[in-house]
Each structure stands twice: as C-alpha cells, then as structure tokens.
Amino acid sequence: MEENKILEEIHQLQALELAILKDVAEVCKKHEIQFFLGEGTLLGAIRHKGFIPWDDDVDLIMERSEYERFLKVAQDELADKYQVQHPTTVDNYWSPFIKVRQLTGDFSFRQSHISHLTQNNGPYIDIFPMEFVPEKMNFKIKKTGFLIRFYRGMLSYKLGLRKPPHFYGKILKFVSNFYSVKAIHKGLQKNFTCFGSGKKPYMATFSSYHPLKSQICRSECYDKMLWWDFEDVKMPVPVGYDEILTTIYGDYMTPPPEENRVIKHHFYSGDH
Fold first, then answer.
1. Which one-letter DSSP state was computed for residue 255?
2. Overall number of domains in the chain
3. Residue 28: other Cβ atoms inside 10 A
4. Selection from 37, 26, 52 nearest residue 130 by Cα
5. How far apart are CA 24 and CA 74, in angstroms?
6. What is the pTM for the complete model shown?
7. Whole domain around residue 104: which residue ranges?
8. CA angle at residue 84 from 82 to 86, to 5 degrees?
9. What distance in Å separates the CA atoms of residue 64 and residue 207, rounded to the nearest whole number?
10. Please, what is the angle between helix 64-78 and helix 2-30, to 10°?
11. Using one digit for the tens of pLDDT, what is the confidence trace for 228-247?
12. Of 24, 87, 21, 7, nearest to 58 (Cα)?
C-alpha cells in the first residue's frame, strides 16, 4: 500500500511539473529562446515518451546566451504562478543554476540538507546552462571542473547543507569562512563561463551533478532540434540525443534493475 501511495504521489507531482514545463515552453516560444530536454528528462522522452516512471523532476538545458535571455524575461513572465530561483534572485541561494518553482500547492520537497533555509520548496524544474569548450577534455577543462567542485563544496558548507565528513571537507569548510555566499556564486559563474561565448567544437554542462566527462559532447549534437513526444505534448530534443545519452548513461535504452529505480528526492503532499 505504501508503495502504491508513493507512486500515486509521483504521478501527481509529475503532472504539476509538466504544467511548469508547458508554461516555461510558452515563455521560450514567445521570446524565441531555444531549449532542449536534458539528462533524465531527455532519457524519459526517448525511452518512455514521457517521464521515467520513478523520476520526480524535470531537467532542461540551454546554451548560455539563451539561458541569460530566459533569466531576464522569466521573472516578469512567470511571476503570477512561479518563482524563478537563481543566485541573482534569491538571497543565500544554494544552487548555481535556475529552478522555476511553483509558488503555491500541496507538494513540497522534504530535503533535510536545506530544511533550515527559508526558501520556497515547492515543485520545480531545473534549467542548466551549456558552455562552449574547445576540446572534449584537456587540462584547463579538468582544472575548471575541479574549481567548480571546490566552490560548490564551499557553498554547501557555507550554507550548512552538510557536515565535513573527512579532511578535504574540513578544508572546504574552513576556507568557506573567508567567502560570502555571493562571492562563492561569483566564483562559480566565472568558472562556468571561462571559455568565452564564441562557438567551439564541444559543449559542456558544468553545473550538472553528473561527472564532468559525461557532460561534454560535440556542439553539433545541439545544432538542430527534433520535436519528440513527452506525455501529452511535443518537446524539443537535440538532434544528437543518441550521442548525448550514450555519453551520460551508456546503454540508455535498457532500464535499470528494479532495485535501482530510486526516487531521487523526498517530497510530501499537503495531506501528510
């Protein structure tokens, strides 16, 4: 019974997130902003023609210039129903990329590491920026990846999102005492964009939680969009979706064993 209850709530949550996705897509259409389904949402579109049944969030990706344009217009366009969360719009924000969150509703995410932060915690979708990079992997890209992990670690300790479990974590916590949250976000953004804006052979999603090597693909993969079934609508996917998904997941068309079909976040509905 408990499992059925959880699956029912996931379906309710997915319906709310689909509504957010549709509204974001309308804003992008109005302002001619290009976006794609990304990561698990892209996988869901290709393998399931919708949500992965046990997935509980939505991931979008935008090339950096499109991402910045969206950030400029989204706050006004979506203000009646959503909060556009970003380091420039929310004080002491804990994430370095955009989340579009529902302002009201019955669902909230119960994430213990951020429960002490007074921020809207309703249903949301993630929007990740993509950066042009010159190669699949080189020393500067590896260095950038290390610095991003370093700054993200400092942000986690600065905001009390976790306790230092080891010596490296204690170093990060100590160093974070000399930085403000705003300065840490500034360091993150500087590293995200350190390769400049001109088109280059590859694209990287530095802000993703996946390992860096799985987040760099040829820029040609994003040169065109295909309209793909996603639940009851069609959404844009990159023309190179096969290369992208293979890079991230390997044999992506084979679902994982049932014991690995894990819900990523903890949430609760208003009747709990």
1. P
2. 1
3. 21
4. 37
5. 8
6. 0.91
7. 2-268
8. 160
9. 12
10. 100
11. 999 999 999 999 999 999 99
12. 21
